[in-house]
Design a protein that fits this description.
The relative contact order is 0.12. The chain is of the alpha+beta class and about 375 residues long. It folds into 2 domains: about 230 residues, Rossmann fold, CATH 3.40.50.300; about 120 residues, Nucleic acid-binding proteins (OB fold (Dihydrolipoamide Acetyltransferase, E2P)), CATH 2.40.50. It contains 8 helices and 20 strands. Helices cover about 25% and strands about 30% of the residues. It is elongated. The structure holds adenosine-5'-triphosphate (ATP).
């Protein structure tokens, strides 16, 4: 069991700033997903927490203890990587046992611990295989077993499902939270897959260009993304974006998209005239109303795209705005080329400042906790 604190940490390689003044407090037993695009600094962050490199500035504490200068083996941190990093000349058993060999543990105790974790991860039948004789899924589980076997107080998982097939990834996404809870470890889980981050993280820390752009629960980040870039990283199909300007009105302000006008939720009257980017998620646009109703968009179905178990429609307005909707999959009357009218629930409309890309919260209606 452990807490982890990063306090204004900066990591440089030469002149390059790879982690730029980042702060994060992880509670005991909490899983925080570190999510971000390739090159954001996720692996550098984990390696630094594990003690394989040191920050140039800031504090790094585990259980309130300063870890700067403390050797990796004295940090009681377990780590599993995306490329499995198994020792090729050792069997799966010996790979899993390796963290225990460093301690004064008897062979019987080692065997007992390895067998228990192997049973849990369903790899007990391949323990005498060398890594080259394991499937990717078995390698991944072996690496995970090695990270878990010494019951580390802090577990660092670096995109452990990246190199496994979609079916196993789906299974592990369901299994892992239970497994991690059972071990009671505090976990940092790096991923480039937003679904994995949402399924596994109690909270998600979105890392972009070496900075945490937003830290929050999956729901907070999905429904109230701090920036357009964050909104675009979460969701499939991607969030619909329209350039517009807030117009005053009573009782509530509105935004124009082409000829249509969409009513905004309360709290935006004070920013009339401001250029904004309007964001609406595809599942928040539904077919409804009739043409000309206030708060509706008239469009035509341009394409039908199957996506997993859903049907997504690409719609285009008369003036050429394209957007997606994933609602009403079963509507037979809305085939390609058909005219339609869609409306958005005002509460689901997001506004971003066009200059900065940051979300504009409705005045007085929510706390603005974005970083
Ligand atoms: N030892 C190093 N020396 C110099 N630059 C480095 C070093 N290690 C990493 N970097 C740079 O730091 C940046 C962040 O790398 P990092 O591996 O942490 O990205 P990442 O977010 O884990 O990406 P991915 O998801 O692709 O693994 C990259 O620009 C990388 O080139």
């Amino acid at each position: 069991m452990a807490t982890l604190t990063l306090d204004h940490v900066t990591k440089r390689f030469g002149k390059d700033i790879v982690l730029d003044d980042i702060s994060l407090a992880v509670a005991d037993g909490e899983t925080v997903a570190i999510f971000g695009p390739s090159g954001a600094g996720k692996t550098v962050l984990l390696r630094m927490i594990a003690g394989m490199s040191e920050p140039e500035e800031g504090d790094l504490l585990i259980n309130g203890e300063d870890m700067i200068g403390v050797a990796p083996e004295r940090r009681a941190v377990g780590m599993a990587f995306q490329n499995f990093a198994l020792f090729p000349h050792m069997t799966a058993f010996e790979n899993i046992a390796s963290p225990l060999r460093a301690h004064r543990t008897t062979n019987a105790e080692v065997a007992e611990s390895v067998d228990a974790i192997a049973r849990l991860l369903k790899i007990e039948h391949v323990l005498d295989h060398a890594p080259r004789a394991l499937s990717n899924g078995q390698k991944q589980r072996t690496a995970l077993a090695r990270a878990l076997v010494a019951a580390p107080r802090l577990l660092l998982l670096d995109d452990p499902l990246r190199n496994v097939d979609a079916k196993l990834r789906f299974e592990m996404r369901l299994e892992l939270p239970r497994l991690l809870e059972r071990f009671g470890s505090t976990v940092l889980y790096v991923t480039q897959d937003y679904r994995e981050a949402m399924a596994l993280g109690h909270r998600i820390a979105v890392l972009m260009d070496g900075r945490f752009v937003q830290i929050g629960t999956p729901e907070e980040i999905y429904l109230r993304p701090a920036t357009i870039a964050v909104a675009e990283l979460f969701g499939d199909p991607v969030i619909n974006l329209f350039e517009s300007r807030v117009e005053s009105g009573l009782p509530d302000a509105s935004v124009a998209i082409g000829k249509a006008r969409l009513l905004l939720p309360p709290g935006y009257a004070g920013i009339a005239g401001r250029p904004v980017t309007v964001g609406i998620r595809p599942e928040h646009l539904r077919f409804a109303g009739s043409e000309g109703d206030s708060g509706t968009l008239s469009a035509r179905v341009a394409a039908m795209l199957p996506l997993n178990d859903r049907l997504v429609r690409l719609l285009v307005t008369e003036d050429g705005h394209e957007f997606y909707t994933s609602r009403d999959a079963g509507r037979q009357d809305l085939g390609e080329g058909r005219p339609c009218v869609v409306s958005a629930d005002p509460d689901a409309i997001l506004l971003f400042d066009r200059a900065t890309g940051r979300r504009i919260a409705p005045e007085g209606l929510e706390g603005t906790r974005s970083t």
